[in-house]
Specification:
- With 218 residues, the protein is α+β, with helices and mostly antiparallel strands.
- The chain has two domains: 3-31; 43-201, Glutaredoxin (3-Layer(aba) Sandwich).
- The protein has helices spanning 3-26, 35-43, 85-99, 120-129, 146-153, 190-201, and strands at residues 48-49, 54-57, 62-64, 72-78, 108-114, 136-141, 157-159, 165-167, 171-174, 179-184.
- The longest helix has 24 residues, at 3-26.
- It is globular.
């Protein structure tokens, strides 16, 4: 083969190899192709301890969602001004709450976690608008580093110049010790999520009350 022809044949292969290497680096070895999946991957495999999640809820109570508790907790990010994904996600959580009303709040607590510092009175209004289900809390993260906290949980957040917030809508299941043991995709059907949650919480005695850590919601 002539040198010029050889070079012409090798050059495209080098370009392809470089592109594959570059894409592989961007996607963590072809395991994550979206901002949402990258955030989950960078937060680490499960089970893993959840970060501290200090909040103020719709009642004005302050507590730590991730503190050891006597029940499982299902946590999903949202904010009240969200125009599209959050209303759908909260409607799905309301459906899950109805399907599991016999387990909530004795074995399971549902938390819609605002990433926009929404105040208690507005959270309460939204909670009532979605049915005011017992055992379903709407709460805002407190503290200046809420985005870093959500990143440690596994939630991607991007604050846009127009004031809207792009963020992940995966739901995180924390066991009574505060470990993340399941992550549910936002496109999972509420009936399927409820069925798995019922199975997971079946071994948790309703009458057994674990000693609560300071800051945990009673």
């Amino acid at each position: 083969m002539k040198p010029r022809a050889w070079a012409a044949g090798v050059a495209p292969l080098l370009v392809i190899a470089c592109a594959v290497a570059l894409i592989g680096g961007w996607t963590h070895g072809f395991r994550a192709f979206t901002n949402f999946s990258i955030a989950l991957l960078e937060a680490g495999p499960i089970p893993r301890p959840a970060p501290a999640l200090p909040v103020i809820d719709e009642r004005g109570s302050q507590w730590d969602v991730a503190a050891p508790s006597d029940r499982y907790r299902l946590v999903q990010a949202m904010y009240l001004r969200c125009p599209d994904g959050c209303p759908i996600a909260m409607s799905n959580l309301a459906r899950v709450s109805v399907l599991l009303k016999d387990l909530i709040p004795s074995k399971l607590q549902v938390i819609s976690l605002s990433v926009d510092h929404d105040p208690p009175e507005q959270l309460a209004a939204m909670w009532r608008a979605h049915g005011a289900h017992e055992g379903w809390s709407m709460a805002s993260l407190v503290g200046p580093d809420s985005d870093a906290t959500m990143a440690r949980l596994g939630v991607w957040i991007f604050r846009r110049k127009d004031g809207l917030i792009n963020h992940g809508l995966d739901a995180f299941l924390l066991d009574p010790s505060g470990k993340i043991v399941r992550i549910y995709s936002p496109d999972m059907r509420p009936v399927d999520m409820a069925a798995e949650l019922r199975e997971l919480t079946a071994a948790l005695p309703s009458e057994a009350r674990a000693e609560l850590e300071p800051g945990a919601r009673p």
